[in-house]
Amino acid sequence: MAEALSKTLTHGDFDSVFQEVQQPETVSWTTEGELRLFHLVIRNNKINVEDLKAYLYMSMGDYVFSRAKLEKFSQAGNRDAVVSQALRVIKKNGGADVQGTGGELGEVLNYTFMEEKLHAPKLMSRVEISTDGKQYDSIADSIHLLTSGVSGRPYHQVVFGSSNIVGDLGYAIDGAFEKICRIEQHEVQEIHMANQLIFERMATDEEAALVKDILVPNPSKTNRYNTSYGVFLGYTLGLGKDYPVHEYEELAEQKMQADIKRYIPYILQKIQDCGLGMHSFYIYVLPFNDAEEEKKSIMEAVLEGDVDLI
After folding, report:
1. pTM (2 decimals)?
2. DSSP secondary structure string for all residues of 124-175
3. Contact 177, 37 (CB under 8 A)
4. Which residue, 13, 132, 5, 112, is CA-closest to 62?
5. Separation between Cα atoms, residue 27 and residue 285, nearest integer Å
6. What are 210-233's pLDDT values in tens digits?
């Protein structure tokens, strides 16, 4: 039996698109967690989103399709058609910036950060949940499996995704935690959905056996799990352009650090107010020039293939 799931995000170079910013503040998590800041390329005193569009376009197949379905594409010799087929699914499902369908930028970036920075491979993305799992009325943006070692034994966390991209960082936090509180109230249904749908989504019998061993109740099993939350927050940076070009990136990073420092107590209070202290939280923050406008225009470009790949 496999000890951990394989990652599904295999296209694109995350670290060439997203630059991490030091987050110097100590966060007093009740259990455990991380709070990390990133930004895109900054050019001419502006956050440049073109590389992000190309990265997301190339990642669409990994995001939309299960491991089993991607394996079927490969066996049929149709691997080159994966991206176009994935875009077709999202368009039929609702199109760009329709939250809850898998076509909203935050839902895609939540998946991306869970896989690349948390190293928690997906069980189901939002687009899979809203198609194959539609009858379960799931609230989560995605469901991932995080495996780590504790005292020499595997320790598993089922990580529910929640995202929000709006102009104000405080409002982004509000929206993400409103969703988290709803997920918490329906956790049994969310896990039930995963139990019903996930095994056929694995590409190998080994991975299917691992997921079954973790998720299916069995008094004699050794693998157990807790539930955690993975959160993506996008907001408008709000830094004017009237600064020397050679200073702008440093000023942008300083503003990001100041923004999140202001809201750390607010995040911790949200966790307390919702009675979520027993869960781990993994939070990733990314600024935009204009979050409300760009979250739509980026996904529109991706779905139309209006991206520069070379």
Report:
1. 0.94
2. EEHHHHHHTTGGGT---SEEEEEEEEETTEEEEEEEEEEEEE-SSHHHHHHH
3. no
4. 112
5. 15
6. 888 888 877 666 557 899 999 999
Distance CA 174, CA 162 (A): 11
CA triplet 184, 187, 193: central angle to 5 degrees?
145
- Condensed to tens digits (0 to 9), the pLDDT of residues 41-81 reads 999 999 999 999 999 999 999 999 999 999 999 888 888 89
C-alpha 269, offset from chain centre: 23
| Planar angle of CA 210, 229, 220, nearest 5 degrees | 35
Q: Angle 166-167-169 (CA atoms, 0-180°, nearest 5)? A: 80
Query: Which tokens sit at 218?
Result: 């069995």
Residues 6+ apart with CB under 8 A from 289: 46, 47, 49, 236, 237
| CA separation for the pair 156, 34 (Å, rounded) | 17
Mean pLDDT, all residues of the chain: 91
Give SS3 for 84. helix
**In the numeric block, which tokens belong to residue 301?**
């470009």
Tokens of 305: 């293939």
What is the dihedral angle through the alpha carbons of 187, 193, 194, 198, rounded to the nearest 10 degrees? -170
Residues 6+ apart with CB under 8 A from 19: 38, 39, 40, 41
- Helix/strand/coil for 22: coil
| CA atoms 102, 107, 109, 112: torsion sign | negative
Helix (H) or strand (E) holding 59: helix 50-64
